[in-house]
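Hi Q.,

Before the meeting this afternoon, I wanted you to have the C2E prediction in hand. No need to reply - just skim if you have a minute. The sequence and ligand are here:
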Amino acid sequence: MSSEREAADPLLAKYALDITRDGIMITDAETRILEVNRAFVQVTGYTRDEAVGNTPALLKSGRHDATFYQAMWQALREEGYWQGEIWDRRKNGEVYLELLTITAVREPSGQISHYMGVFTDIQKLHTTQQQMERLAHFDALTELPNRNLLAERLREAAGQAVRQNQLLAVIFLDLDGFKQINDRHGHAVGDRLLVMISQRLRQVARSADTVARLGGDEFALMITGLPNMEELELVLGRVLKLASAPCEIDGQPHRLSASLGVTVYPFDSADPDTLLRHADQAMYQAKEAGRNRYHLFDAERDQQAHTRRQLLDRLAEGLMRGELVLYYQPKVNLRTGEVIGAEALVRWQHPERGLLPPGEFLPQVEHHDLIIDIGEWVIRQALAQAQAWHTQGLNLSISVNLAARQLQHPDFLDCLRGCLSEVPGLPPGTIELEILESAALENTGNVRTIIEACQALGVRFALDDFGTGYASLAYLRDIPADVLKIDQSFVRDVLEDPDDLTLVEGVIGLATAFRRVVVAEGVENAEQGVLLLRLGCDLAQGYGIARPMPAERIPAWVRAFRPEPAWALWADTHWEMADFPLLVAQYDHLKWVRQLALFVEGAVSLSLSEAELQDHHSCRFGHWYYGHGRQRYGHLPEFLDLEKVHMAVHELGPEIVRLRRAGDLGAARSRLRGLLALKDDILVMLANLQQAVASHAPGQGNLAGIH
Ligand code: C2E
Ligand code: MG
Ligand code: MG
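Predicted structure with the ligand bound:
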């Protein structure tokens, strides 16, 4: 503004000064006030006359120290200008915050002639801001910190807990029965109760702790500086006690209690929000366990659940991306040497982890709907494969495993029907569904209905892992499964463990009685196959026949398959239950010899007793020979031949042990070769005896030929 214009319109300048809402004061070089405007009068409460002649010290609040004013004057001298927030005092004594700008006015010579101060009262702004801050950090009803402030304090306290090697607990508290009181007595009473509880909780907290209200009847306590868990238990006990002490409002007593969920940092090393969520989860468990108690969050279990969720997501993605594949394990008839079918077994071709067996991912999704999607994919895929083989002239029945959840799903039958309609050329009998015996036991009535509906579609049913689920006879009668699959654990030990032999024998007997087909799984060697055949179980699958393989390898495998000669040898014979001990005797003898051989090679200490070693009456074979064996076969020359060789075995055995103990390994080994030759002789003799017995037995037809 030029000086001519200023001089030309002094009235306008005065008017402008007066209407501006900023307070203005003009002082001389000695800071004596020369002029103030109307806004100055309004803000400070001093009249123009009171102000003029004074210095701005008139307004000093006392809130700033000398260095504050020194810095201000220095800026004015050096830069001719200062701006900042400053606390001043009104005439009525009230302190207020203003935003002040001071400009030094200089003469042409550079000499300061005046100062001009312009200020805005920002007290209102400041108050609003403070209120907003309070609102953002505190709960209005109880005046406790809210979730935001708690999270902030948690962040600080977590760092400190680590530095001081102490524990930090986050307690999530939810009142029990508060809603009923609120509903019955109204919100005003409810609010007063909340205030009362908040005051009690404050008593538990020390200065570094925080009690926060999260909303409704939910509170949280952050307890710092805990040396150990015992200390925490004391705190929890106190909180529970305080929360359940009676509250009196207007002479009327009310009873509340609290359920607490607790997580402890750094055992649970999550971020503040997650810590609170974990405590919340634990609180729900406290509620479920019956309220008025606390529950500790289990970080390890949560980690497992987290891993499970990740696997679930990844598996769902894998299913979509086509990472699942079906392998097929052939199923054969030992008696006829035919390949009768194959079991579809799912695998996950994981891009990073390689080919995963179902045990690595199915159990984790067994109780999740994803198993239903996977199951549906398996059925579709297996049916399409069966049809492809069918058109090549390869007629294999395909077994598909079902999860319990899948079988019991309301849409299961529709889904199965839909899948079958997509392969019209395929006889429905081609597919067999396997459910775990244990799964079928869960809801027998329902399972029976579903199985019957499937059978009406022509689909057959098998009870998988049979023998592990404790099915009773009544149950077997109720569940109309076509096939029983003897669990592989029994088949594996059938040669070793007389109990398993009895069980397998029993299952085969049951299957015959109830007219079910029986399949042995887990057949790992030819001997097991022979034994199963002798017991009357013709159908088998297992590594000893073939391992599960990709679909494209199946046709060539089927073409090349030749049954074990040993099976053919026994194919036409029949066997009576009373003759089973004869089968077992063979394996008892084998075991005796194997134990000796292992001892010679130093793999194990000798597990035979002295009597079993020395005395041909005391070993298990001897027990059979001089007991049940002599009674039943004493008249057969094949039986009588055995005695001499068996006695020779018991002469050689102790000598081998003596040599080995004396450290003469060479001699022990050479005698062992002799023992193994005797063993072969005994096996041949036993086979002769078994043939003689089998061909003499009248024989009862078994289930060969059902397939
Ligand atoms: P399962 O139905 O009892 O299948 C037989 C399992 O035993 C298969 O394991 C097979 O590879 C294995 N096995 C076969 N012969 C032998 C043997 O001689 N010795 C030994 N040690 N093992 C043998 P896999 O493929 O790992 O499958 C394990 C289980 O996973 C299956 O047991 C079945 O219950 C389940 N499963 C497989 N595929 C599916 C599917 O598509 N859906 C559902 N719900 N479950 C499936
Ligand atoms: Mg199976
Ligand atoms: Mg099985």
